[in-house]
Amino acid sequence: MYVWIWRRLPGGLPGKLVGSLVLLAGALALLFFIVFPYAERRLPFQDITVDPQPTPRPTVTVSAAP
């Protein structure tokens, strides 16, 4: 697949390098600005189902001296 893309990019080696960097930057921008925010709203990262419980206090017993 990468060979197919490389052969279809115009220009010589410098043009192909610039073209591939532009394609890579476009793919990353698409992921970070559209795909990841869309997926974040649908994934339960912030849905916490554990109820907070108060920590039990230690009991102190006082015994009388004999």
Which terms summarize this structure?
66 residues, mainly alpha
Q: Can you give a write-up of this model?
A:
- With 66 residues, this protein is mainly alpha-helical.
- 56% of the residues lie in helices and 0% in strands.
- The longest helix has 30 residues.
How do you describe this structure in short?
By secondary structure, this protein is an all-alpha fold. The chain has helices at 2-8, 13-42.
Number of strands: 0
Number of helices: 2
- Major sheet size, sense and barrel closure: none
Order of helices and strands: HH
Helix-and-strand structural type:
mainly alpha
Strand content: under 5%
State the low-pLDDT regions, or none: none
* Mean of all residue-level pLDDT scores: 85
Shape: rod-shaped
Our measurement of the CA-to-CA distance between the termini, rounded to an integer number of angstroms, reads 89 Å
Oligomer: single chain
- Rg, nearest Å: 30 Å
Helix content: 55-70%
Write the layout of secondary structure elements.
Elements: H1 2-8, H2 13-42
